[in-house]
Design brief:
Two copies of one chain form a homodimer.
Chain A: E1 2-7, H1 11-22, H2 24-31, E2 35-41, E3 55-56, H3 60-63, E4 68-73, H4 81-90, E5 94-97, H5 100-116, E6 121-122, H6 134-143, E7 146-152, H7 155-167, H8 171-180, H9 189-192, H10 195-209, E8 219-220, H11 228-236, E9 239-249, E10 255-265, E11 277-284, E12 288-295, H12 299-315, E13 340-349, H13 355-363, E14 367-369, E15 378-382, E16 386-387, H14 388-395, E17 401-409
Parallel strand pairs in A: 1-2, 1-4, 2-3, 4-5, 5-6, 8-10, 10-17
Antiparallel strand pairs in A: 7-9, 7-11, 9-10, 11-12, 13-15, 13-16, 13-17, 14-15
Helix pairs in contact in A: 1-12, 4-5, 5-10, 7-8
Chain lengths: 410, 410
C-alpha cells in the first residue's frame, strides 16, 4: 500500500479524494498497489466527511511522515505551495501538482530537485485540465522536431468568446453569464486578462523547447477590450476570434511566445473549439498538426489528471521518468515585436485624409475588409506579414487617420 | 548503441529509416542511446540508397542476429507479418508495428507472448497514424471509467465525405479525386467499405475495455451507398455524415461495437473534423469527452509514431510497460441490433398509404425531416431511440411504404 497526502482540500483536492475513492478497484489494478490517502492538509476542518480524521493543519505532520511517498499539491498560488513542494521533494517524496502558477514560475528548479533526488515531479493537470497533453507532447517530441505549440488554454474566455460570436453578446454580458454559471470567478482578471493562459503557454513552451519560459517574458493581452465589432470584423475576414497562447521556434533556436486574441481562419483546427473546451495544437516536422481537445477545467476532469499522475508515480517510485526541461536563458524568448505578424487594422479617417492612397503607398496591395454597420469614415485592412515593430513604424506615418482597432491574424 | 531491424521498406518502413536518419541527434538524446538500423528486410533491392548494404531478403538474417534487440514491422497484411513478429518476440526481441490488420487479428496473442518474455510490443502507429492516442488513452483510462470510444478512423473516407458535404460531389466524383490525390488506393474497398476503420476500432475497443475484439465481431457498413441526398438529409437534421467507428460499454460490462456512416450533430466534437484528418474521442466518467485530432495516415506522420515507439522501447529494454489486454470472450461484443439507436428513415409511399397515420400509430411523436428536392411521395423522419431490431419490426408492419433510406443518428 502506498500512502499519499493531499495539500489543500479545495475543488481539485476534494475531487482527487473523490476519484480515488470512487474508482478504487480500477485504480489499484492499474497502479499495481493500493493507493491510500492518509493525510490532507487544510486550514479548515470537514467534520462531516467520512475521512474527517485525515485532516491536519500542520504541514510537518506530512513532511515528517516517512510512510508518505507521494504528495499531491492542489492548493494553488505560489506560497506556501512552492515551499511545501520543495520541502517534500527534498524529503524524498515524489510530487504531483495541478498548480500552473507554481510550475510556470518554478518548474525548472523543482524538476532539477526531483532529478537530483531520483524522484518524480508530474503536473499533467496544470495544463488543459483532464486532457492528456504533456505526455502525448513528450511522445510527439520524441520523433519530431516541434516548431510550434499553440492553444486555446482558458475555458472561461473561450466560453465568453463563443457567446459573443454565436449570440452577439457583449463582453460584459458574456462575463456576467460566465460568472452566473460558475465558469468565471468574481474577480475574473486572471482569465480575461490572459494571465491564466500565459502560465499554461509557459509550461508548454518550456517542455516543447527545453528551456524554462517565465510568465514575465511572455507578452500577454487579454480579451477585456474586445467588442461585438471585433467579432464582426473577424467574421468578415473569414475567421473567428479566439484567445490564443502561442510559442514558435525561430530558425536560430529562439522563441516567440505570446498570449493574445487572434483571428483564426475557419479551417484552422482550433477555430471550431467552442464553449469551455480547451485545445492544444502541436506542430511537428513529421507528424504535422496534432490537436488535443477537452474540458480544460472543472473538478473531476482536473482531478482525473492528477490521479493519473499519482498512478504513474506509484508505478515508478524507484525510477524517474518523463518530462524535463532546463533553466531559462536571457534572450531565449525574443521580443514579440520582432515576430512576423499580420494585423487587421481599422482607422477612423478625416474626410480629406486620402486613406486608401496612404495605405496603398505604405503597404502596396492589401486586403480591405468591411462590415455592414461600420461608420462611413472607417477603413479596415489586413496588413502583409512583417515584424510588428515595422508595421507600427509604417502606420505611425499616416496622417489624418486614427487607429481604432488592431487585431492579430493567426 | 541499439541495433534495430525494419521489416518492409514500403511507404512506412522507408519513412522510419528517414526519420531516424534525419532527426538522429535529437532521437539519440531522447532515447539515451544511439539507435541504428542494421538490417532491412525487403524482397526488392534499393541499390541507389545510401544504406543499400543493409537489405536482406532472408528473415533469418534478422531473427538469428542476437545484436538486433528491436524489430520494426511495417510490411502490412497478416502473413508473413504475424509469423515474423511472433518469431521475433519468441527470440527475445521487442517489436514495434504499424500494422493494424495484425494487431486487430492477433493483438491479444502477441501481447501475451511479449508479457511472458518480458518484452515490449507497441503499435501506436496502427491507429490514427501520428496522433498519440493509445498511450494517452491508457492515461485517461488510469483514472477514469471509460464508457465510450468513438472516432473518425479513416482519412480517405473522411476526405471523400468532406468533398460530398462541402462541394456537393457525388461518391464516384469524390473517390476519383481521392485516387487522383493519392489518398485512395486503386482498389479502395478497405477504405470505403469500412474494413480499415473496423480494424482500428477493434484495437481501440480492446485497449479501452480490456478484452480482444475481433474484426468479424464488429458490424461494419461502409460509405459506398451514400448519395448527395443522404448528405442533404443529414444537413436537414442539423448534422453531418461521418464514417464512425464506435464502441460503447453496456451497464453489464458487454460491448456494442460497430462501424457505420452516422449523422453527427453539429455540436459533436467529431463533426468539425474534415478532410484527411482523423479524430478519436474518449468518454470517461471523470474527464468527460477528450478528443485527439491529427493526420491519420501518410508516410511521415505514421513513421514518427513508429519511431516514438522505438525510442520508448529503447528506454525500456529491461522492463515491460504500457498497453495490455486479454483474450476475447464469446458474447463480449453483443449483437449491434440490440443497441439503442435512432434512425433517419425515408419511405417512398403509395398515394393512399396514409404514411403519416401509420408512422404516428407506430412511433407516436416523431421528428419529420424534409429536403428541398425530395420527391412528393417521399416521407422522412427520425425515430425514437430503441433497439434496432425493434425499429425493424415496427417498420416491417408498414403497408404501401417502401424503405428507401436509412441512416444512423449518433
Amino acid at each position: 500500500m502506498i500512502s499519499i497526502a493531499i495539500l489543500g482540500h479545495g475543488v481539485v483536492g476534494s475531487g482527487v479524494a473523490e476519484v480515488l475513492l470512487h474508482n478504487e478497484k480500477g485504480i489499484t489494478a492499474k497502479a499495481g498497489d493500493k493507493i491510500r490517502v492518509t493525510r490532507i492538509l487544510d486550514l479548515r476542518s470537514f467534520p462531516d466527511l467520512p475521512y474527517a480524521d485525515l485532516f491536519t493543519t500542520n504541514f510537518d505532520d506530512i513532511l515528517n511522515d516517512p510512510d508518505i511517498r507521494i504528495v499531491v499539491e492542489t492548493m494553488g498560488g505560489l506560497h506556501p505551495a512552492y515551499d511545501f513542494v520543495k520541502a517534500s521533494l527534498l524529503a524524498g517524496k515524489s510530487v504531483v501538482t495541478s498548480n500552473k502558477e507554481l510550475v510556470a514560475a518554478k518548474g525548472d528548479e523543482l524538476l532539477a530537485i526531483a532529478k537530483e533526488n531520483n524522484l518524480n515531479f508530474l503536473f499533467e493537470a496544470s495544463v488543459g485540465g483532464g486532457i492528456p497533453i504533456l505526455r502525448p507532447m513528450d511522445q510527439c517530441l520524441a520523433a519530431n522536431e516541434v516548431f510550434e505549440v499553440a492553444g486555446i488554454l482558458n475555458g472561461t474566455t473561450n466560453f465568453m468568446l463563443t457567446k459573443m460570436i454565436r449570440e452577439g453578446m457583449s463582453f460584459d454580458g458574456a462575463l456576467a453569464l460566465a460568472q452566473k454559471l460558475g465558469y468565471a470567478e468574481r474577480d475574473p482578471s486572471a482569465d480575461v486578462e490572459g494571465h491564466d493562459a500565459c502560465r499554461k503557454i509557459c509550461i508548454l513552451a518550456s517542455l516543447a523547447f527545453g528551456k524554462h519560459v517565465l510568465p514575465e517574458e511572455v507578452h500577454t493581452e487579454g480579451i477585456t477590450n474586445l467588442t461585438e465589432q471585433d467579432v464582426a470584423y473577424a467574421a468578415a475576414c473569414g475567421g473567428v476570434i479566439k484567445l490564443v497562447g502561442r510559442a514558435t521556434r525561430t530558425e536560430d533556436g529562439h522563441l516567440f511566445c505570446y498570449v493574445a486574441p487572434m483571428i483564426l481562419p475557419r479551417d484552422n483546427l482550433l477555430a471550431d473549439v467552442n464553449d469551455v473546451f480547451n485545445a492544444i495544437m502541436v506542430r511537428g516536422d513529421s507528424v504535422g498538426d496534432v490537436v488535443f481537445v477537452g474540458r480544460g477545467a472543472g473538478k473531476l476532469p482536473t482531478a482525473s489528471a492528477v490521479v493519473a499522475d499519482v498512478i504513474d508515480e506509484v508505478k515508478h517510485l524507484k525510477a524517474r521518468k518523463y518530462l524535463f526541461w532546463g533553466p531559462g536563458e536571457k534572450g531565449h524568448v525574443r521580443d514579440h515585436r520582432l515576430a512576423p505578424t499580420r494585423l487587421l487594422l481599422c482607422f477612423s479617417c478625416e474626410e480629406d485624409a486620402g486613406a486608401l492612397v496612404q495605405i496603398g503607398r505604405m503597404f502596396g496591395d492589401v486586403r480591405m475588409i468591411s462590415i455592414p454597420d461600420a461608420p462611413d469614415n472607417e477603413v479596415a485592412f489586413v496588413t502583409p506579414c512583417m515584424p510588428e515593430y515595422l508595421l507600427e513604424e509604417k502606420i505611425a506615418t499616416f496622417t489624418g487617420m486614427t487607429l481604432t482597432r488592431r487585431l492579430r491574424m493567426y
